[in-house]
Design goal:
The structure holds two protein chains of two kinds. Chain A is built from ten helices and ten strands. In chain B, helix 4 packs across helix 5. Classes of the chains: A alpha+beta, B alpha+beta.
């Protein structure tokens, strides 16, 4: 990507390493890393007063290949969903597993969710201040339960961490966020089943026109105070898909009811927002604006 | 007074044979090497206790724990300090009682203080998170790791510690750990001389977890006071001034009593004791 910019455009001299600010105060390597997150398939997280749910859409590189793992268990009380470079996520989750084991070994207590997520945030931040390396190209949704209750955090390659009641990362995740923003007031008192259903509906909104959720491409994970981190894959996830009225995106289904109308509006908003974002970067003069950069399938990224 | 410990009333050589001097001069230095004025190790100043504190006592009662340790700092047999606080408060409601080397006690104090600071970073302004964070069982596990790590470096922290507090469920927690990293729990615990003199007295009242339910707070406090008195009578490294902490499970509170004095002592019997110390004049 770097070379691409340099050779074709001769415009951007500020993206060779993560230590150089552009004159507009941006660090392009970090922004490119955030872009890698957007290329990965979507992952959605939601929290109630008792449970945290992660749902994610798995991709397979080709018809005969296996699907890329999207949810990684860290400990009995903790797990992550990823969007972006899977190998980077593996490194981060291995580190988290070490931290979790160390907490058990040294203090005889489970690693707190905030401590977990800030430990990887510190690692990620270091990469945004050193010239030799690159930032992590993956975003994570960190879900877990500790003495202070259930928590959902979003981790970004920049090292920034925020806590959410509902969050979505990855390709077309804006559609999910729109749904979550509309429904989040119901989350705190939702049951385990309702929360998973909300998650799947949010995930469904990220699907491309011709795609459907199925037991091969959908992952569900739940954790609560009384339930160890549980991942539902393949045949085990079917029970949750059965609860949905439709497995396809509302856009694919066309205008059938009022809900669809809303969705369609939201999608327009999303498209508009994305357009605005592109325009903004274009006017700033030195960001990658090519559609090649944005097309998910153009890159050989992970999933 | 004769300050040579070997003149302090050892049973006669004719009865028990001559004293094995190697016991008093035990060393981790290879005796062969010592003869050649070499040693297996570089000079080590922290490999035996210098300034020491004596026993720590603790007992569980029906609604918590009573723990006590006196304020003496001994330099060998010399009573060097009478104001040493050996009951450390860690976090909101954990008491760590430490006997053994006092400089190592201070090292542990610093380690636990760092732990507390580290913990407060996590919790931020959230009082509840801070209270829920560092419980007695976590402190004890951490201390055990520290003690075992140091003994594995052949550089132990020369202490025996008793951790008293509440666990994650709010239940009373009482456990021991020493310089070898050995850890165990019991409803009655004592370190040092107390393990010989006080444990039998404590176990007369509380022999198992079932007996804990029968012991009231007032009785537990009185029992610990009596044991501190016995220790002051019979442990030559002890002091009649001590600190005592009383933990109660029902309100998750710790009462900390400082400068408690040993009361109702009777020393009349002392005149009759013969055969110890300098020949009586």
């Amino acid at each position: 990507m770097v070379c691409f910019n340099r050779v074709i455009t001769f415009r951007n001299n500020y993206d060779n390493d993560a230590t150089t600010f552009s004159p507009t105060g941006r660090i392009f390597q970090v922004e490119y890393a955030a872009e890698a997150t957007k290329q990965g398939s979507a992952a959605v997280g939601l929290v109630s007063k008792t449970h945290v749910v992660l749902v994610a859409l798995k991709r397979n590189a080709e018809e005969l290949g296996s699907y890329q793992k999207k949810v990684i268990m860290i400990d009995d009380h903790l797990g992550v969903a990823l969007a972006g470079l899977a190998p980077d996520a593996r490194v981060l989750s291995n580190y988290l597993r070490q931290q979790a084991m160390s907490s058990k070994m040294v203090f005889n207590r489970p690693l707190s969710v905030s401590r977990a997520v800030y430990s990887i945030a510190d690692k990620a931040q270091e990469n945004t201040q050193s010239a030799g390396g690159r930032p992590y190209g993956v975003g994570l949704l960190v879900a877990g339960v500790d003495v202070t209750g259930p928590h959902l955090y979003e981790f970004q390659p920049s090292g920034s961490v925020l806590e959410y009641v509902g969050a979505a990362i990855g390709a077309r995740s804006q559609a999910s966020r729109t749904f979550l923003e509309r429904k989040f007031e119901d989350f705190p008192n939702a049951t385990r089943e309702q929360l998973i259903e909300y998650g799947l509906i949010a995930l469904r909104d990220t699907l491309a026109q011709d795609k459907e959720l199925n037991s091969k491409n959908t992952t569900v994970a739940v954790v609560s105070k009384n339930e160890k981190f549980t991942i539902y894959d393949d045949e085990n996830v079917q029970q949750w898909l059965d609860k949905l009225d439709s497995l396809a995106n509302s856009r694919s289904r066309g205008r059938q009811d009022d809900d669809d109308d809303d969705d369609e509006d939201d999608d327009d908003d999303e498209a508009a927002a994305e357009q605005a974002e592109t325009t903004a970067t274009a006017t700033s003069g030195d960001a990658p604006t090519t559609t090649q950069d944005r097309a998910p399938d153009a890159m050989d990224l992970e999933e | 007074m004769n300050h040579n410990p070997f003149h302090w009333g050892r049973p006669s050589d004719s009865t028990y044979g001559p004293y094995n001097q190697q016991i008093a001069h035990a060393s981790n230095v290879n005796p062969m090497a010592r003869q050649q004025q070499q040693s297996d190790f570089p000079t080590m100043h922290t490999q035996r206790p210098m300034m020491t504190g004596t026993s720590v006592l603790a007992i569980k009662y029906q609604d918590g724990i009573v723990i006590a340790a006196d304020n003496m700092g001994s330099y060998g047999s010399l009573m060097k300090l009478d104001n040493v606080e050996r009951l450390l408060k860690v976090g909101q409601d954990t008491i760590v009682g430490i006997s053994g080397d006092l400089s190592d006690l201070q090292a542990i104090q610093r380690i636990l203080n760092d732990l507390e600071i580290d913990e407060s970073y996590d919790a931020g302004d959230d009082e509840d998170a801070l209270a829920a964070g560092l419980k007695a069982n976590h402190v004890h596990e951490y201390l055990t790791r520290i003690m075992y790590n140091r003994r594995s470096k052949m550089d132990p922290l020369w202490n025996a510690c008793i951790v008293a507090g509440f666990d994650d469920e709010g239940k009373s927690f009482l456990k021991y750990v020493d310089l070898l990293g050995v850890a165990f729990a019991s409803p009655t615990l004592a370190t040092g001389f107390g393990a010989h003199l006080a444990i039998p007295l404590l176990r007369q009242r509380v022999d198992s977890e079932a007996d804990v339910k029968k012991l009231t707070k007032a009785d537990a406090i009185q029992l610990i006071k009596d044991c501190m008195k016995v220790l002051f009578y019979r442990d030559a490294r002890s002091l009649d001034k001590y600190s005592m902490a009383v933990l109660s499970e029902s309100d998750q509170k710790v009462e900390f009593h400082k400068d408690v004095k040993v009361e109702d002592m009777k020393w009349a019997f002392a005149k009759g004791i013969k055969g110890y110390g300098m020949p009586q004049l």
